[in-house]
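Backbone-to-sequence.
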């Protein structure tokens, strides 16, 4: 219950009472609320439809709670389609987009909300850390995963462990700069990380990756830069700049395997030049966060593979 305490505080009593009756609440992933539609909850990989139809008053109550009764103060976040609340939980929003200068100024008449529960799993990166750190060096690593397979959770714990260091493996803690464009890695609330990302980690929250990487290089002297879901040409240019500065990189992309990197033109340069030396591929065959295999780009082969295929 503690992990979802802050989430419960934004919900109307009618929805909160029903949620309190749910088994395995610690596995809560999402609550989907739409005006005049039944509620859906996702517990782990399972979806359940409730016999409760949401009202516009439910949406209004939630919006008032997450904005502390001042919607205008959160306009910058709302125009990006979500608000991060205390505890690191993210509330996605849909409604009528107000367009100004060919861009979204804000979203009004909110009719659909998706609440994503933010959870950290301390130690979930234990299995992959020996393949990422070696002789006190950090390999440039890309985590490849379909949606909802735990790549951000894994990335968060990797950040924590690199930042903390490990006495048993004689790995020194490193200065880590986290470029958290969508507030998902650290789950920052008012600039303060709600998740444990390590004692030497600095977070640039709500910052575009390409700009954030350059800002971190100039001002924070990081040993390692961590970011989520790279994919644009600007991202690639910033990554190459970081590597030329001697900084290690840990990042993620959507995909189903190493072959997806080779298929995408935007990744051609970084693949051809062995920018990444490690690839970690996830799936959900044995539950969210299943590690399928770990790939060594420099050798062109797997260095570890699950026996549970």
């Amino acid at each position: 219950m503690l992990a979802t305490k802050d989430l419960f505080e934004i919900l109307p009593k009618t929805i909160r009472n029903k949620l309190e009756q749910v088994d395995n609440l610690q596995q809560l992933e999402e609550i989907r609320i739409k005006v005049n539609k039944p509620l859906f909850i996702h517990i782990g990989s399972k979806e359940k439809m409730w016999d409760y139809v949401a009202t516009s008053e439910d949406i209004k109550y939630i919006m008032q709670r997450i904005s502390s009764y001042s919607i205008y103060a959160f306009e910058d976040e709302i125009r990006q389609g979500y608000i991060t609340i205390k505890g690191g939980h993210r509330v996605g929003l849909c409604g009528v987009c107000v367009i100004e200068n060919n861009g979204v100024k804000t979203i009004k008449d909110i009719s659909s909300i998706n609440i994503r529960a933010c959870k950290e799993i301390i130690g979930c990166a234990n299995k992959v850390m020996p393949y990422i750190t070696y002789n006190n060096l950090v390999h440039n690593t890309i985590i490849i995963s379909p949606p909802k397979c735990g790549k951000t959770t894994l990335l968060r714990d990797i950040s924590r462990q690199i930042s903390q260091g490990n006495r048993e493996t004689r790995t020194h803690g490193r200065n880590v700069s986290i470029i958290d464009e969508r507030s998902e890695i650290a789950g920052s609330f008012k600039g303060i990380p709600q998740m444990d990302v390590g004692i030497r980690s600095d977070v640039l929250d709500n910052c575009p990756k390409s700009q954030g990487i350059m800002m971190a290089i100039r001002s924070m002297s990081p040993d390692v830069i961590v970011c989520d879901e790279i994919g644009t040409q600007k991202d690639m240019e910033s990554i190459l700049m970081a590597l030329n500065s001697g900084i290690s990189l840990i990042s993620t992309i959507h995909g189903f395997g190493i072959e997806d990197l080779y298929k995408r033109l935007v990744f051609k340069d970084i693949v051809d030049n062995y920018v990444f030396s490690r690839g970690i591929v996830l799936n959900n065959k044995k539950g969210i966060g299943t590690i399928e295999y770990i790939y060594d780009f420099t050798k062109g082969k797997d260095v570890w593979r699950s026996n549970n295929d």
